[in-house]
Design a protein that fits this description.
Strand order of the largest sheet of chain B: 1-9-8-3-4
Distance between the termini of chain A: 37 Å
Number of helices of chain B: 0
Largest interface: A-B, 24 and 24 residues
Structural class of chain A: mainly beta
Largest sheet of chain B: 5 strands, mixed
Oligomer: heterodimer
Helix content of chain A: under 10%
Shape of chain A: globular
Number of strands of chain B: 9
Shape of chain B: globular
Number of helices of chain A: 0
């Protein structure tokens, strides 16, 4: 079974530029999560999708961050414009359902904003 | 959301058992105890979870105190590949919301 796929793995941009991250969850997994992980810290949830519906986006900074999960499969997380403080690893995870305890994480996208 | 407390770091020798402690004194009756680990440059990986009874799987064992205010993740024979950050997380059923702390960084010495 293929794992969660994320691309790109690394991204370097200048501040004020836009950036997008893509995630393909495990086939059949209805729930998709985006997390942000700063250096030396544990991941923090940004948004959770049930199929195509964002059911928890309370931690998503909506002034510059947006996300979508069209057709309830792949998802894209966008930052526009990026700031220096956005440098972090962006992790995508999926699970069969919200109530299923095991979340499967992708390798993450490491973003560096110069 | 209930919080957990873990030591910042621990060391172990290869092929010896490792006991990773976690305190969660404010745990509620519906909180499950989850453990994830994160190897360098990888995303977190599910290890084990439990509610009240001790649990075993191919990766580890989870020992839960009778009052549920603490738990211990047990790696029966540590290998170099077990060197990682281990996170103890309380998860309320049906929310799916993992709240990671800083975890315990486990070093395994050959």
């Amino acid at each position: 079974e293929a794992g969660v796929v994320q691309s790109p793995r690394y991204k370097i941009i200048e501040k004020k530029q836009p950036v997008a991250f893509w995630c393909n969850p495990i086939s059949g997994h209805n729930t998709l999560y985006w997390y942000l992980q700063n250096l030396g810290q544990g991941p923090e949830l940004l948004i959770r999708y049930e199929n195509e519906e964002a059911v928890d986006d309370s931690q998503l900074p909506k002034d510059r961050f947006s996300a979508e999960r069209l057709k309830g499969v792949d998802s894209t997380l966008k930052i526009q414009p990026a700031e220096l403080g956005d440098s972090a690893v962006y992790l995508c995870a999926s699970s069969r359902t919200t109530s299923n305890p095991e979340q499967f994480f992708g390798p993450g996208t490491r973003l560096t904003v110069l | 959301d209930a919080k957990t407390t873990q030591p910042n770091s621990m060391e172990s020798n290869e092929e010896e058992p490792v006991h990773l402690p976690c305190n969660h004194s404010t745990i509620s009756g519906t909180d499950y105890i989850h453990w994830y680990r994160q190897l360098p440059s990888q995303g977190p990986e599910y290890v084990i979870h439990g509610l009240t009874s001790n649990v075993n799987n191919r990766m580890a064992s989870l020992a839960i105190a009778e009052d549920r205010k603490s738990s211990t993740l047990i790696l029966h024979r540590a290998t170099l590949r077990d060197a990682a950050v281990y996170y103890c997380i309380l998860l309320t059923s049906n929310t799916g919301k993992l709240i990671f702390g800083q975890g315990t960084t486990l070093q395994v010495k050959p």
